[in-house]
Amino acid sequence: MKSNFVLVLDTKRQPLLPCHPARARELLKDGKAAVLRQYPFTIILKRTIPDANPELCQLKIDPGSKTTGIALVQGKRVIIGVEIAHRGAAIRKKLADRATRRRHRRNRLRYRKPSYRTRAQINNAKCTYARKREKGWLPPSLQHRVETTLTWVQRLMRSAPIGAISLELVRFDTQVIQNPEISGVEYQQSELRGFEVKESLLEKWGRKCAYCGASNVPLQIEHIQPKSRGGSNRVSNLTLACAKCNQRKSNRPLAEFLAKKPDLLKTILAKVKAPLKDATVVNATRWALYHALEKTGLPVEVASGGQTKFNRQQLGWDKAHWLDAAAVGEVGALWLATEKPLSVTCTGQGGRQKGVCDRYGQPKRNQQGAAQIRPLKPIHGWKTGDLARFDNQLYRVTPRQNGSFALSAQDQKPFNRSRHRLQRVQCADGYDYA
Fold this sequence. Notes:
single chain; alpha+beta; Nucleotidyltransferase, domain 5; DNA Binding (I), subunit A; SH3 type barrels; 8-stranded mixed β-sheet; 5-stranded antiparallel β-sheet; 29% helix; 23% strand; globular
């Protein structure tokens, strides 16, 4: 399978045109270059190239809610593909857990007056200070998507000669997703069209339990995707169930609950409207990402999602995030010089908390009065996520105080080895690579 092209820098760390992996192996074997970075694989030349004027490449981006695709196009060929898996859900969960612990701690210890001014005081002009969010503010889980994409754009700009950026400026019409025939004044009408939530669900599900078909029994409103697993209160995520089915399903996902009834699962999913969470995320971050890319100083081309899908189908490519990125904008006759994109997963840089709590809200390490306070990082000069070489193979390192580090690799069982037998290859940068 064709791999990504190799990024090349000259002796002054100026980007040159990426080269084929076979050419990079020749340069490394002959001692004309050295490895600068493992992911993305980058080499640096040991000799100066006079009057280097490399051909400019085009960077294409397909922003997504959970995964963002990036493709580097040189001429009529796609030479590098990257897929970035965001961690917005993890950030949202950590913020919610922290808020819950803080609220419980305040209620458990003593009552404290809020440090902010109430809305009534602000309206009555009794105070001159008020917390205000800046224009264009985004929640941390959404801002993370913008900043991560911009980080990788800047990283590739430092390693490849990029002359322009193409961005899929998606805009989802959430009401059209639920009702393709909507038009005119219907945009101003409620989704329920005069029905209460319960009556709407009774009409939609035929006044029967969606799971066992029982009728003429008390029915309860039930979340198809449990709220504890990220489900919402939208009508598209609600159904009706009798008390027994509701208790048996509990907080299990629908696919797990109906694993032995595939036909019933298919019928229920056909009635459920498409979820809109991902569409809302893309809508909220699209302009923030566009303005952030404009600040790079490169010309930014925008295109619609419909054009991207049309280009991909015309080129005969399969559905993939990095291929969607390559199909953004005007493409012409493109061909794939690589078939194996770099998979990047956001893991974060680690926490800065001095006290970490367990699921019950009780501190579990770095407590006051402890005989010895263990540092969170680094440990023996290593941090979780560092890449090390052992027996001519790369592993991800999880350091431990006893000096026996855990090594893990893709599709391999983790094992322990002494830190003295490891050779550091790349420091942790907040990402996992595959």
